[in-house]
Amino acid sequence: MTPGDERVFETVRHSLVREFAGVFSPETVAACLNETYDKLAATARVDRYLVVLAERFSRDRLHAIAKIEGKLMTNVPEVLFVCVHNAGRSQMAAALLDDRSDGRVHVRSAGSDPAERLNPAVIEAMSEIGLDISKEFPKPLTDEVVRAADVVVTMGCGDACPLYPGKRYLDWELEDPAGKSLAIVRRIRDEIDQNVQQLLAELAPAPAR
Q1: How far apart are CA 41 and CA 148, in angstroms?
Q2: C-alpha distance from residue 30 to each of 54, 71, 143, 182 (Å)
Q3: How far is CA 171 from CA 86, 113, 174, 193, in A?
Q4: What share of the chain is helix, strand, coil (3-state, %, to 5)?
Q5: Cα 200 from Cα 205, distance rounded (Å)
Q6: From CA 145, how far away is CA 159, in angstroms rounded?
């Protein structure tokens, strides 16, 4: 970490401590941020804007922990999408469900072996339908995001996702878009969208007008 990164890191730490004041101690927040930074540096292998990405991921992890510990009460169902690299299928599914649900579902995604960056063809295919995921990044699978989820949807990651009683687990058999043409990625995107809309209708149907 460069001196400049260290200064940004301290700013991020103070910001998260203020954000979660009354929920978590400063030490807990700092420990989560440190661990998250190390996970992204060693596992996800992202190097650009690493501190900023660590801030985003830490915030999400802290929200998940707060839910698990009963410090955050919500009636909104949570869905976690998991694939191997978190660079294609799970990212598309998360973006589609987030868009289609209009806030009725909280969505996360993760990878059992995160890639360095998102699949460019996936970014392009999603931009064609008006969804910009270019700022997203592959995230490692962590225990708390699984525990916080009501539904866990796996996509070709085998038994990498831990199992917890009381959760709904789904496995969507979908072709891996890695190395595929844009035409094939579009087809995979549309298959995911069909599955997402079916899941949404089960979890949080749109209110009657």
Answers
A1: 24
A2: 11, 18, 18, 41
A3: 15, 17, 9, 15
A4: 50, 10, 40
A5: 6
A6: 16
Report the catalytic residues: 83, 157, 161
Q: Which residue has the higher pLDDT, 163 or 80?
A: 80
Nearest residue to 176 via CA among 98, 80, 90, 81: 90
Report d(CA 188, CA 174) in Å as an integer: 7
**What's the CA gap between 84 and 61, in Å, rounded?**
19
**Residue range 83-136, pLDDT digits in tens:** 999 999 999 999 999 999 999 999 999 998 888 889 999 999 999 999 999 999
C-alpha torsion sign, points 156, 159, 161, 164: positive
Query: What's the CA gap between 16 and 56, in Å, rounded?
Result: 10
Contact 162, 148 (CB under 8 A): no
What domains can you pick out in the chain, each with its CATH number?
A: 1-73 (1.10.8.1060), 76-209 (3.40.50.2300)
By three-state DSSP, how is residue 108 classified?
strand
Alpha-carbon span 26 to 11, nearest angstrom: 13
